[in-house]
Amino acid sequence: MDSLRIAAAYLTLFVGVVSAAFAQQSGRIEGIVKGDDGAGYPQAHIELILAGAVVQNAVSDDAGSFHFDDVPAGVYALRFSAPQQTETGLETDIDVRAGQTFRVDKPMLWHTGALVSLTVTAPSRQPEPIENAPAAISVVEAPYISLYGISGQVPNTLAAVPGAELMQNGLFDYNFNVRGFNTALNRRIQTSIDGRSPEIPLLGYQEWSSISLLTDDLDTIELVSGPSSAVYGANAFNGVVDIRTKSARESLGGTVRLTAGELDTVRIEARTAYRLGRGWYLKIAGGYHGSNDFSVSRNVTVEYPGLALEAIPIPKTHVDLGLGTATIEKYFSPRVYMLLEAGGASLSGVVFVTPTGRVESDNVRSWTRVKAVIPDWTFSFSSNTRNAPTTPALGSGAPITEFDDSMQASALTNRQFGSRAAITAGASWGRDYVNTAGPGGVQTLLAAPESDNHGDVFGEFRYSLTKSLTFIAAGDIAASTLHPVQFSPRLAAVYKLGESNSFRLSYNHAFQVANFVELFIAIEAGLPINLSAVETQLQPLTGGVPLGLSSVPILALGNPKLDVEKITSYEGGYRRQLGARNWFTVDYYRNEMDHFITDVLPGVNPAYPPYQAPSAIPQPERSIVSGIINSISPGFTNEANGDPAIVLSIGNSGRVNSQGVEFGVNQTFLTNWQAGANYSWFDFNAGVQPPGVLIHPNAPAHKAGANIGYHRRRFDADLRYRWVDAFPFANGVYVGPVPTYNVVDLGVRFQFNEHWQIGSSVSNLLNDEHYELFGGDILKRYALGTVAYSWK
User: DSSP assignment, residue 733?
Assistant: First the structure.
């Protein structure tokens, strides 16, 4: 890590030298574009013109605001236009002076209900109108995030998107997925924040609690549903969640927010962004969260039938989260800039459900991110560390210690060839290191420290055969020290019927890599079981030879021979898009999964064959004793010293097929009202599987949701309903039913003036006590109130 700090120091020095060389006296232009009703007009295009040439471009935000920073002193003009609007506007004699701000408020005769195309980036890693995207895509924007995000439960803001599979345990332990086969510590959805992977290398899992204090800094969340390895590489198996925060330059000012409510919750959050001059900008964000949790100890009793008692109570009954991040941006010109970010988060008292039992995690995370943008190219580098001191697994009481260290570098280019062809291409390299040694140097989770190096190259080519028909071909080649080289292709065709309707057909291939735990875990998965009564009954056959059945350990052991899990998907979809808030979408998919990575199961690891009784027992009695013991429970085997043990592990199964339909609609009516609905159907066929392999998709066959909202300039309210049908759940030691549940959420916000705002967020408004994964906590109502002060 010393080399990274040195590199960052040199980068900072380089930026300073270059900025000094290019520094010039400049000013700023800001303003609002207004529609025919006097309200701010979103997605207006503004061109800054000097001597007849366009020198900068801007797009107005949801409130119609726009601005140009670092404008050299001079006299300019502004030209205004908007999608689906024939009228254009012009403002001249914009006299920009050094160190001053010139304001332009531009009224236009544009009807705000007209079509405004929504731009997305995640499907192809380049900006494009949403109707051109070659994948199913959902977008959650800042206003909606601010309604349901004040609790810090970021995945909860995705609950209303079509196909979302949200499994919550406690306040901050989430598993988010689409299209089936969700698990505790789910990693079938690749997650990134501003291009940085926040996943834990040990598990390949996103620890959502570590970003829970970024409510006012989140800009958009894009969800790509369906395999996406062709442009994202490994583990973009069922899709991608692309989270973007606000840049310092585009969100000057700040917010201080105080939130309090049930479970003795107290949250303090702050965010501020400054213009430092000469193209420099600074953003600082962070806060603290303290509360109780829904998690309760299970060492004496359990919340519902089927759960096993745990060895120890929960050590801490209070959740404490802290986060701080700082970002420096330097703009050399409108299309050339660099960024340096550093941040850290602390977590204490959050209980997680894992396939081997519940754990309570205390850890500290830190990260850095460097990004450089020049015309047609983006370069980035990021590093992450996670240090979790020794904490006990609740099921066994065994101590667990963890240290993760990862880094990744990438380059991305976008090129346009005329009006019909475009290429997006990139490459990345990364390294992960994991060590679970405790204070005495003894490994607590893995058999030994592990690391891997991985990299990939990808490219996407798109060609518009006609104005309406576009073909897309993409592919990724990925290599790693943990798996053979993988190739992931994507073929798609998008047909546009007018400006707002598009049909899509696609073929996708993706893969998921077994994580370090699945490959190399070595821990006790539960309390030893006492089978001394069985040993007594077998004495006539054993002749008194000891079997060691009085304390049989239950072990979770890795399977380093696991193959990568592969998926092939065939999809068809239709989207009608009328702005960010008016849309209709329906998608059908069929998936074929090979080398399916099973749940944690007994008897699936070929390295641990069925139990064999001691050789001191003569035949045929030895075979009889072995058969009787193996019949007691699958997974009975021998440890290296010959003693009996039950081993749980991960294996590869045969082909698993699934299919489904995702439907969503959102519509604005009566000017200020908005309503939406979604429904998804899921089906699967596991076919013929190896003995002892039971596959559950851990997802309901049916789920649906609806919402209705009222929105004015200073007031927003949204009522959301989510229904999830009953389904069986199986993940490691947790096997049981998840009953049907209904959740109603409410978000309200009122803006007194440009500075003061109050709001409320209530999850599970009707207090439907339920659990969302077998082994998870009983969830109840969680009501919060908030007050915020903002400034520009």
Answer: T
Class of domain 2-107 (CATH, top level): mainly beta
Can you give the pTM of this predicted structure? 0.86
Q: Measured between alpha carbons, how far is 791 from 502 in angstroms, rounded to an integer?
A: 41
- What is the CATH class of 119-331+350-521+561-600+651-791? mainly beta
Map tokens 């080399």 to a residue. Answer: 3
pLDDT digits (tens, 9 = 90+) for 48-82: 998 888 888 888 877 788 988 888 888 999 999 88
DSSP class per residue in 125-189: TS-EEGGG-SSEEEEEEHHHHHHH-TTS-GGGGGTTSTTEEEEEETTTEEEEEESS---TT--SE
Asked whether 60 and 580 are in contact (CB, 8 A), the reply is no
pLDDT tens sequence across 137-157? 999 988 889 899 889 999 999
- Summarised one tens digit per residue, pLDDT across range 366-403 is 999 999 999 899 999 999 999 998 888 898 888 899 99
Which residues lie closer than 8 Å to 450 by C-beta, 6 or more apart?
A: 433, 434, 516, 519, 520
Cβ count within 10 A of residue 691: 7
- Averaged pLDDT of the chain: 90
Q: Among residues 190, 222, 221, which one has the least CA distance to residue 123?
A: 222
Q: Over 577-597, what HEC string results?
A: ECCCCCEEEEEEEEEEEECCE
- Candidates 727, 675, 719; CA nearest to 703 is 727
Q: What are phi and psi of 158, to 5 degrees?
A: -95, 5
Q: Where in the chain is the domain with CATH 2.40.170.20?
A: 119-331+350-521+561-600+651-791
Partners of residue 496 on adjacent β-strands: 502
Angle at 100 between CA 98 and CA 101, to 5 degrees: 130
Q: Are the CB atoms for 567 and 593 separated by under 8 Å? A: yes
CB atoms within 10 A of CB 376: 11
What are the DSSP E strand ranges found in 447-563? 450-464, 469-480, 483-497, 501-512, 522-529, 552-557
